[in-house]
Amino acid sequence: MKIKVCGMRDPENIQNLIQGVKPDWMGLIFYSKSPRYVSSDSAASIQLTEVPKVGVFVNEKIEFVLSKIDEFKLSAIQLHGDESPGYVRELKLKTNKKVWKVISVGESIDWETLRDYLGLVEYFLFDTATAGHGGSGRKFNWNMLETYPFEKGFLLSGGLDEESVKEVLILAERMPQFVGVDLNSKFEDAPGLKNIEKLKSFKNRLLGNDKRPTANN
Ligand SMILES: O=C(O)c1ccccc1NCC(=O)[C@H](O)[C@H](O)COP(=O)(O)O
Question: Domain of life, per the record (predicted)?
Answer without folding.
Answer: Bacteria
